[in-house]
Amino acid sequence: MEISPEFLSQCFLHTLSPAPEPRRAAEAKLSEAADQPNYALAVLRLVAEPSVDEQIRHAAAVNFKNHLRSRWAPSPESSLSPILDAEKAQIKTLIVSLMLSSTPRIQSQLSESLSLIGKHDFPKSWPTLLPELISNLHAASGNNDYVSINGVLGTANSIFKKFRYQYKTNDLLLELKYCLDNFAAPLLEIFLRTAGLIDSTVSSGGGSPVTLKPLFESQRLCCRIFYSLNFQELPEFFEDNMDKWMNEFKKYLTTSYPALESTADGLAVVDDLRAAVCENISLYMEKNEEEFKGYVEGFALAVWTLLGNVSQSSTRDRLAVTAIKFLTTVSTSVQHILFANDGVIPQICQSIVIPNVRLRDEDEELFEMNYIEFIRRDMEGSDLDTRRRIACELLKGIATNYRARVTELVAVQIQNLLNSYAANPAANWKDKDCAIYLVVSLATKKSGGTSVSTDLVDVENFFAQVILPELRNQDVNGFPMLKAGALKFFTVFRSLIPKPLAVQLFQDLVRFLGAESNVVHSYAASCIEKLLLVKDEGGRPRYNSADIAPFLQVLMSNLFNALKFPESEENQYLMKCIMRVLGVAEISSEIAAPCIAGLTSILNEVCKNPKNPIFNHYLFESVAVLVRRACERDISLIPAFETSLFPSLQIILANDVTEFLPYAFQLLAQLVELSRPPISPNYMQIFSLLLSPDSWKRNSNVPALVRLLQAFLQKAPHELNQEGRLSQVLGIFNRLVASPSTDEQGFYVLNTVIENLDYGVIAPYMVHIWNALFTRLQNKRTVKFVKSLLIFMSLFLVKHGSVNLVDTMNAVQPNIFLVILEQFWIPNVKLITGPIEVKLAAVASSKLICESPSLLDAAASRHWGKMLDSIVTLLSRPEEDRVEDEPEMPDIAENVGYTATFVNLYNAGKKEEDPLKDIKDPKQFLVASLANLSARSPGRYPQVINENLEPANQTALLQLCTTYNCPIV
């Protein structure tokens, strides 16, 4: 059935309604219609209909773009029906001409749509696109139609962007060559033609902004396309025509355009073009320095002069940053000699660095109005380059070759700034801020660690004279930007501040948690948190529970109170500090009670509308570490924790708070593991929920559910044989092990069953288990799966004996055990890693060759010898290859988000259990087992060893026998 334009027009009209009812009804109708064939084509035709109101056509263009995004090339997991090839072909035929004839708002949407198609189909599945764009470019150029010219250039810019971001491959280079062969010449032609129009317009009376703006936008687009086409390597065409491009680039950096620059809008247009030029010359400086060297000095002078005229207005930040970046690139290249002349470095410092490092009104406004963004730029070094940071990067760049000069000069500047502050602190506080910023930003991080150093100042002396007065100041709200700078300095140079002084200052840091400024109390929390991570030589923490014990209660109270400040209700720096303090402090019941009350209150609030994933992660980590540390000290606190936490966890489960379910399951697992049998009825209700197949539908919940299931299997194994629960658990195992994305989790479930239940309970199910494993081995074999299977077989053998292992496997298919042994166990056991896993695999394999009738049979001597060879290889690997250090808690990356992924709670982590606690050394176990075997069958095994072991392994085995004084007779 064809979708009528009248139907679509009415629907798009109603989507613009401010009233929710007609808007939702229209959106539902469109969503239903979107599944019909030719829906996209019908919407595109509505966009093309000039008689329809432009607002409706714009809404249709947005819908068309979103429809393409989800259905042009839907992911394999998507349930949406894809656009059919016949419809795609018609869309490609119509879209270019329609985009060029549309109004600017609609053109923008259609250009994005075209780019979406191009991302998947260009050039291989859309060979007509580039010729059509070039043809339209020539036609529009002949008519001086800059709306269409910029439409074509904007589209070309979008489809060529991939050359900036994709890895260099042969396919990418072939696509790039195709684009260069067809578009490089037309690009230069339109660039030079537009340059001529700008020159003639300006020289004949300055021109009007209306005339000049589209011309400047055209040049900016040409510059962005230049950047994309030159990004991978220098193309021959651009090298041959470098003079033409560079002369025009330099002109835009050195010429003023009063007709445009007299207004803010016009100045922004010119600055955007200049910024694009700076990015192009920086690219050539980085990648084509040899070919570009003749132009460097002229551009360096042009950029330097330009920077002297760029005001401090935030509207000109992008130009300032890109221009300074170019000078930074020059400073670290072979062209750095340009900075060697007398007076150059002082002038750069005076005219570029200091003005851009000084606080501006915009910085103060950001500090007060958007503390999260201020911290992101100031403390965390966000992707967004700021003038302050890039100016310091320029100094660092120059210091690469002129360190002594830069250090001496900046040290003098810092002293001058501090003298200015001392002369009039109230009026000149920004000078002190500037001095602190310079010291912090020019500090160099020592390789391989978090400690920093600086040769600008003596850190201890600077700290005592400049920073300490700010930290000791009793007015936590006075001059908050200076306080923030002092706290940042303390944080950055924390490893260089002597411990006795730092311990004295802890109470001042606790005071600053009460500052009204969000930045100040965030920096105070961050400083405390980072101090507690400082380690001395040997990896020993510098600060321990005794150091914070005297003020622990007031510290925790101030942290929770700071979360009540406006806009700090979900302050991740405060919550991270809470987590870190709880991980270090001695947690008494006096501390635990208010902390769990405070955390559950916050948890109940964020459950209503989870917004900040990083804050929420640290919140759950804080709960987990509090429960762990408090119960380590006093197990009787568990009932109080259960009483506090259960209502919050039930809210998450009952309301299906998707983002929090994995966290809730991990906390429940932690509580189950800590509780003493018999398990409370509350937990058994959750156990029933856990065994429901519906709980396992979301893959993001699986690792946490497995963790919880393991906790139940360990704590209540006797409950498993009631009400058919074991069948349900094995059904879960079956589902998980069938898929490569969850098979490892399936083995965790299976291993826990094998470890905690008697053989008589699991024996009736073993044929089912082997069937599931062998089916998966046959259909979707991966290295990870094979390793997990080996660990499972090893665990089964050490728990229930080799005879049960061999017999249950052979019950599935006669003699399958020897097939599995030969094809999988023997070749792969040497690949096992992890200290517990290596010991388990080695001991199980040793038991197999020394105790199993299947391998003690003379007919199996070749298998016996090959298995021994693999065991010796496994145990002969260097210790560092096998031992995995206990990881420290990882820092949570900024990209923790609400995608459907599992985020592990470090502090609720499962403790690795060693199933072979009685066996300390697998090497000794092997040679002792071999010695006993040789004693029972003298003279039989040396020949088998000589025939099957690699020479290196024969030597290694002999050394082991000598070491443990267990000769093989």
TrEMBL record:
Record PROSITE patterns: IMPORTIN_B_NT
Subcellular localization, as worded in the UniProt entry: Cytoplasm; Nucleus
Any one annotated GO CC term: cytosol
Keyword Transport: yes
Keywords: Cytoplasm, Nucleus, Protein transport, Transport
Record-annotated Importin N-terminal domain positions: 26-101
Keyword Nucleus attached: yes
InterPro entries, alphabetized: ARM-like, ARM-type_fold, Importin-beta_N, XPO2_C, XPO2_central
SMART domains linked to this entry: IBN_N
GO biological process, alphabetically ordered: protein export from nucleus; protein import into nucleus
Ranges that cross the membrane: none
Protein family membership: Belongs to the XPO2/CSE1 family.
Protein's UniProt name: Importin N-terminal domain-containing protein
Organism of provenance: Manihot esculenta
Lineage of source species: Eukaryota, Viridiplantae, Streptophyta, Embryophyta, Tracheophyta
